[in-house]
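User: Can you recover a sequence for this backbone? Please restate the input before giving your answer.

Assistant: Of course. Working from this structure:
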C-alpha cells in the first residue's frame, strides 16, 4: 500500500476526488452552492485557490497551501484534515437531505503536487475544460460550476485570478489555451496514470 503524502505548506496541488462507485455528489444546484460555501469555511483559511470545477460525480481544485504564518486559522489544523473536514461536513448534509447514510467520497482524496509553471498552466486548462472533456458543454464558458468565468470577470473574488492570468502571460493567451480541445489535454498526463 502506498503512503499518502501530506499536503505541504507553500506548495501547489491538484486536489481531486469522486463519489464512491462514481455516485452522484451534486444532485441539485443548491448542492453545488452548499459545497462551495463549506469550501470557503474549511479551505480558504489554509489555501489559495487558482482553479476549480465541480462535476456531478467528481471535482477538481488547484490550490496553493498557505505558509504557516499566512494560515490565520486559529487551531492550525493540518491542510489534509481541513479537506477531510470539508468532505465530512458536506457528506453529513447530503446524507440528511437525501435520506442516505455512509461515506460519499472515495478515500483518501487524491492529490498531486504541481511543481512547474507549464504544469500549472496545463492543469488549469484541464480543470476548466473538464465539462468539455465529459461532453457536457462545448466550451468551458458554458459551464456554471467552474472558475473559468471568474477568471474572465472583474468582479471581486477570492480566486487568485491575477496570478492565474499571469501564468498564461495575459488574458488573450488564457482564452487561447482554453480553446484547445479537451482531447488534447489528456487526464493521464495530469494524474500520472
Amino acid at each position: 500500500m502506498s503512503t499518502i503524502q501530506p499536503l505541504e505548506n507553500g506548495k501547489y496541488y491538484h486536489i481531486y476526488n469522486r463519489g464512491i462507485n462514481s455516485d452522484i455528489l451534486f444532485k441539485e444546484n443548491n448542492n453545488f452552492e452548499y459545497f462551495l460555501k463549506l469550501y470557503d469555511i474549511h479551505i480558504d483559511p489554509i489555501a489559495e485557490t487558482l482553479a476549480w470545477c465541480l462535476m456531478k460525480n467528481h471535482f477538481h481544485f488547484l490550490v496553493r497551501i498557505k505558509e504557516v504564518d499566512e494560515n490565520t486559522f486559529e487551531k492550525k489544523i493540518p491542510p489534509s484534515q481541513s479537506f477531510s473536514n470539508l468532505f465530512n461536513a458536506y457528506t453529513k448534509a447530503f446524507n440528511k437531505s437525501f435520506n442516505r447514510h455512509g461515506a460519499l467520497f472515495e478515500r483518501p482524496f487524491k492529490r498531486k503536487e504541481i511543481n512547474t509553471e507549464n504544469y500549472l498552466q496545463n492543469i488549469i486548462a484541464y480543470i476548466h475544460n473538464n465539462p468539455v472533456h465529459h461532453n457536457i458543454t462545448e466550451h468551458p464558458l458554458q459551464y456554471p460550476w467552474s472558475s473559468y468565468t471568474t477568471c474572465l470577470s472583474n468582479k471581486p473574488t477570492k480566486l487568485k485570478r491575477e496570478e492565474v492570468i499571469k501564468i498564461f502571460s495575459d488574458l488573450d493567451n488564457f482564452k487561447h489555451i482554453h480553446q484547445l480541445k479537451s482531447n488534447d489535454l489528456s487526464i493521464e498526463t495530469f494524474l500520472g496514470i
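That completes the design. The longest strand covers residues 47-54.
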